[in-house]
Design a protein that fits this description.
By secondary structure, the protein is of the alpha/beta class. It is about 40% helix and about 15% strand.
Length: about 350
């Protein structure tokens, strides 16, 4: 019996594995540290914006996200013509690749990096070219520049890098972009930019200005705490922003998501107090892990990376039994989100005992 054909490219695409919630355990508090979510609940002002907008759910959202674009443009000092929004920054990336890549093209990125990259690239029919991370679990930008070929259409730079944590400095990024042909798009994925405290790490929007091939991705899912609403955006040269918008799903960003994002921008001072608290917890966790004997990469994000190799799954099981769910990458390592203080305490206790047992 004949069956409808499915594109051959889909046979090579890996399945995205989301972070799992912890299983309930009698007498033990459980915490989800597997998805890099903001542990704080929404601000009252953001909830109010959501509630007000919910009364209009019978209407389609503003497909052009005009008010949201104006708010973002004002916040980042860019024209609205250089903006494109979608359901999370990863959706913006999907649209960008769909608009610029086809069978036979190449998309270059570090590995290990965001696990959605191979899926997004494969869906276009292009080939993903993975360049191993360098020392300190950082992007090896020299190796990435050398891996660019005539078939390369897009290069992805995740900074801070998910799942390992280190960020690319502004000097490194500018030098890297300067080495590439002008017709190769450089995507600077800054989903965790608000958590960066290294003064040498610049803002991708500064690199985008005056260039025709640099695209910056941002999201409201992490620092702004809107993971459940899914809204992200690209800051890109006008021609590329137009291409992204052209292939975007009509009415993709809901009216509630747009309202919540606008309210979040208006409440940045309050939200960033929470971000500062998470950065403080990140420092405490990194210091505690290192005191226990762990060799942990410098993280500029809201998570830490434990290179466990073949012990990764066993460590994740141990954490689950203690009440925290981490994100294992079997055979490689575990990414652990910075969560509530109590959750971080459990991580430090489990990690210290693990290190002592495996010394």
């Amino acid at each position: 019996m004949r069956q409808p054909p499915i594109r051959p490219a889909l046979g090579t695409i890996p399945t995205y594995k989301p972070g799992k919630p912890p299983a309930p355990r009698a007498g033990i508090a459980t915490y989800k540290l597997s998805s890099n979510e903001n542990p704080y609940p929404p601000l009252p002002s953001v909830l109010l914006a959501v509630e007000d907008t919910a009364a209009q759910l019978n209407r389609y959202p503003d497909m052009g996200a005009s008010v949201l674009y104006e708010a973002i443009a004002d916040r980042f000092g860019v024209p609205t013509s250089d903006l494109a929004a979608a359901t999370g920054s990863v959706a913006v990336l999907y649209h960008l690749l769909q608009a610029t890549c086809a069978d036979g093209d190449e998309v270059l990125y570090a590995w290990r990096s965001f696990e959605a990259y191979p899926i997004a690239v494969g869906a276009t029919g292009a080939s993903g070219v993975q360049v191993p991370l360098g020392e300190g679990a950082r992007h090896d930008l020299d190796a990435m520049a050398e891996a660019v070929t005539e078939r390369t259409r897009v290069v992805l730079v995740c900074t801070p890098n998910n799942p390992t944590g280190p960020a690319v400095t502004e000097k490194e990024l500018r030098r890297f972009v300067g080495r590439l042909p002008d017709d190769v798009i450089v995507v600077v994925d800054e989903a965790y930019r608000e958590f960066v405290r290294d003064p040498d790490v610049g803002d991708g929007t500064d690199v985008y200005r005056g260039r025709g091939n640099v695209v910056v991705l941002r999201t409201f899912s992490k620092a702004y705490g809107l993971a459940g609403l899914r809204v992200g955006f690209a800051i890109a040269p006008t021609r590329l922003a137009e291409a992204i918008r052209k292939v975007s799903l009509p009415f993709g960003v809901s009216s509630i998501a747009q309202a919540a994002a606008i309210a979040s921008l208006q409440a940045e001072d309050e939200l960033f107090e929470r971000v500062e608290a998470l950065v403080g917890e990140r420092t405490r966790v990194l210091d505690g892990l290192r005191e226990s004997g762990w060799d942990v990469p410098d993280s500029q994000a809201n998570f830490v990376w434990l290179a466990l190799g073949d012990d990764t799954v066993d460590f994740a099981v141990t954490c689950d039994e203690a009440g925290i769910m981490v994100r294992p990458f079997p055979g490689d390592g575990a990414r652990v989100s910075i969560g509530e203080t109590e959750a971080n305490d459990v991580l430090l206790r489990v990690a210290a005992q693990w290190r002592a047992d495996h010394a």
